[in-house]
Amino acid sequence: MTVMLLNGAALRGGCCRHKTLLQLLGPLLSHSKLYSSYRRPGAEPEKKTLWQNADFSFKKGFDVLKTQLSLLKEETQNHLIGPEGRPLSQYLLEQTRVVWQFRSQEDLNKWIISSDVEIGGKSEVYLKLGRNNQGAMLYGTLNTEVPRDGETKYSGYCSMRAKPQLGSFRRKKYYDWSNFNSLYLRVRGDGRPWMVNIYTDPYFSHQKDDLYNYFMFTRGGPYWEEIKISTLGFTIGDKIDGPFQLEIDFIGLLNDRAHTEEFAYETYDKNTPV
Fold first, then answer.
1. Could you tell me where the DSSP H helices lie in the chain?
2. Bridge partner list, 111
3. Within a 10 A sphere around the Cβ of 147, how many other Cβ atoms?
């Protein structure tokens, strides 16, 4: 559930082989500083190669190998039981499911917060447990001041994004929500509009940056608000300087039998016959 930037064609031939090897040897790396290809405008390029930033640790690699084999065994046992480790009858009859519930620090660690500080902005964002450990509180201050780098034209955003799922041996795992037709959220905001984002990781590179959005308008006040999305990260960027706050009790899935819409826009032939 992330947006990835493609490297330039001129850089692919030289660096992709090293990146592939680093992914294969990932368990052997200890405290390695491997960053994305993004670089702030005006910043000096990284002079060290990826291999120079890597610190090999065979002891850690052996421990990680045991952990990954244990995960692989668990995944195999769950696959024999049924989809996602549950009997097929239970899986087919499921109508609701809570995917993320915020009750402990471990639940918060499944998410990543970011802001325009990454591009030289001045917005601030924080994530903590709510009162009595009931729900997550995303709060901070939005600042639309544009960095003075001569290239950035817009600024002022804060976001909260779920970490990608990883299977054994760091294989990508995807959310299977095919039995449901709606996202179901229980939130309490401050009256500001938010954008709920669903990121994709498609096979074809020209769809790499595809992002599906839903605008969520919170009403403010002391009462919780239940929102259904039928089309996940949260982003605020309404160009209004000042503090913001959003509480999230849980994020779940709902199979709404009353919802029959398959596509929210008009459909028509591209070449209408005359």
1. 9-24, 58-81, 88-93, 105-108
2. 162
3. 18
Contact assessment for residue 255 and residue 95, using Cβ atoms and an 8 Å cutoff = yes
Q: Return the biggest CA–CA distance within the chain.
A: 72
Q: Is the pLDDT of residue 2 over 50?
A: no
Write out the DSSP string of 77-123. Answer: HHHHHSGGGS-HHHHHH--EEEEEE-SSHHHHTTEEEEEGGGGT---
Indicate if the pLDDT at residue 26 is higher than 60.
no
B/e letters for 46-69, b = 16+ CB within 10 Å, e = fewer, are eeeebeeebeebeeeeeebeeebe
Backbone angles phi, psi at 203, to 5 degrees: -75, -40
Distance (Å, whole) CA 181 – CA 95: 10
Task: Report residue 270's pLDDT band, with 50, 70 and 90 as the boundaries.
Answer: low
Predicted structure pTM score: 0.66
When the pLDDT of each residue in the chain is averaged and rounded to a whole number, the result is: 75
